[in-house]
Specification:
Elements lengths: L2 E2 L2 E2 L4 H4 L14 H6 L4 H7 L7 H11 L1 E3 L14 E3 L2 E3 L3 E3 L12 H11 L3 E5 L6 H5 L5 E5 L5 H13 L5 E4 L9 H6 L11 H4 L2 H6 L5 H12 L9 H7 L4 E6 L2 H9 L4 E4 L13 H12 L4 E4 L6 H9 L4 E4 L1 H33 L12 E3 L4
Parallel strand pairs: 6-7, 6-13, 7-8, 8-9, 9-10, 10-11, 11-12, 12-13
Antiparallel strand pairs: 1-2, 3-14, 4-5
Helix pairs in contact: 5-16, 13-14, 15-16
Bound molecules: flavin mononucleotide (FMN) and benzoyl-formic acid.
Flavin mononucleotide (FMN) binds next to helix 3.
Family: Belongs to the FMN-dependent alpha-hydroxy acid dehydrogenase family.
Cofactor: FMN
Protein name: Lactate 2-monooxygenase
């Protein structure tokens, strides 16, 4: 069995629920519908939908269905070890909490609950620039932590974010490149709802001395407009990455890469890692499914860069498929947010524990002692229906 802190998972995980009916489903693919009962229409409308017609999010899910695991027998998989070190961070399993902004939309405790839950399982939490709690507030309760940068156009504010992240113990910089501006999101547009226009998700900005120094007055509306001007940063080019290298000592990961050409450019520009991701389908409608982009990118740069993956990962079985297609770790997005909506920190822990247990069981039953043994031969393409 594999061990995660105090929690024995895998086969023993089933014992967790043997005498009680869990309040939250153990079928992680059903979390979204269960969470709908706890969330306002505005919050659900922001979290669940994707860009445009939703075709990228549908493609993300469909891509997982096109691969089937091929379980192997008699391979002695009684003991498993899912631990790994990713970019210098020790992890009990190849799972990282994806950066997600405005988590108070899901639960009043927001990022604090998520960071506590991740720490309880020894997992790494990634702090979004758009969080509802600041770097420093989260650092007080978090375990291992990475920082996700939405690169503001203002150089002073950017430098201040990097400084604050460093000073409060965030070890890896994850630069999200696919959100130079928000995608076309009809669900939000039709409702006239964007959380940050109400001042939500701006804790890092509102607590920032460099940002405050730019404001002409104390009016919240002025601050929000100022943020909006700094957020959109579509002018960035590959050459700009040298600025981050100069001002960030630790590993740098580019998030939102789905083309082999960009993956090669990331390697040429001295980056340390990638997250193959299409932002859960929230940015470009009709974009390539993230899982379909993964094998080509892993083949092209997997030896040089730490290739990670998100977008559409819902279950431990999904994670096994992404690992088999070349990811060194997966990031979990919406599912933990549904756990947060359902029961705060306890809800996130439930989701993470179920996810890890299912991953561990999947490995055990497919004949693997270690997730690194997963490879292309672990999968077969589903027959075309
Ligand atoms: C409500 C919401 C907010 C998000 N905010 C951020 C963010 O602030 N920074 C970021 O890099 N990605 C953000 N993402 C994208 C996630 O990091 C991740 O790429 C995505 O959720 C993966 O897709 P999935 O949830 O369908 O698996 C957000 C996603 C959601 C659903
Ligand atoms: O909604 C998102 O996908 C996202 O990344 C974001 C961007 C700005 C503010 C909050 C979340």
């Amino acid at each position: 069995m594999a061990n995660f802190g105090d929690h024995q998972l895998g086969i023993y995980a089933q014992g967790m629920f043997a005498h009680t009916r869990p309040e939250i489903t153990t079928d992680l693919s059903r979390l979204e519908s269960q969470a709908a009962g706890s969330l306002s229409a505005e919050a659900m409308g922001y979290i669940v939908p994707s860009a445009g017609s939703g075709s990228t999010a549908r493609a993300n899910s469909a891509a997982f269905e096109r691969w089937r695991l091929s379980p192997r027998m008699l391979r002695g998989s009684a003991e498993r070890d899912l631990s790994c070190t990713i970019l210098g961070t020790k992890m009990p399993a190849p799972l990282v909490i994806a950066p997600v902004g405005v988590q108070t939309l899901a639960h009043p405790d927001g990022e604090l609950a998520t960071a506590r839950a991740a720490a309880a399982l020894g997992l790494t939490y990634t702090h979004s620039t758009q969080a509802s709690h600041s770097f420093e507030q989260v650092a007080e309760v978090a375990g291992d932590r990475w920082y996700q940068l939405y690169w503001p156009t203002d150089r002073d504010v950017c430098l201040s974010f990097l400084e604050r992240a460093k000073a409060s113990g965030y070890s890896v910089l994850v630069v999200t490149l696919d959100t130079g501006t928000l995608g076309w999101r009809p669900a939000d547009l039709d409702r006239g709802f964007l959380p940050f226009l109400k001042g939500e998700g701006l804790a890092n900005y509102f607590s920032d001395p460099a940002f405050k120094a730019k404001l002409a007055n104390e009016e919240p509306a002025t601050a929000v407009m100022h943020f909006a001007q700094m957020f959109s940063n579509l002018g960035l080019t590959w050459d700009d990455l040298s600025f981050l290298r100069e001002h960030w000592d630790g590993p740098i990961v580019l998030k939102g890469i789905t083309s082999v050409e960009d993956a090669k450019l990331a390697a040429e520009h001295g980056m340390d890692g990638l997250v193959v991701s299409n932002h859960g389908g929230r940015q470009v409608d009709g974009a390539v499914a993230a899982l379909d982009a993964l094998p080509g990118i892993a083949d092209a740069v997997g030896e040089q860069l730490t290739v990670m993956f998100d977008s559409g990962v819902r279950t431990g079985s999904d994670a096994a498929k992404a690992l088999a297609l070349g990811a060194r770790a997966v990031l979990l997005g919406r599912p933990f947010l549904y756990g947060l909506a359902l029961a705060g920190q306890a809800g996130v822990e439930h989701v993470l524990r179920c996810f890890l247990a299912e991953l561990d069981l999947t490995l055990a039953l497919c004949g693997y002692s270690n997730h690194r043994e997963l490879n292309r031969t672990s999968l077969v393409p589903a027959p075309k229906s």
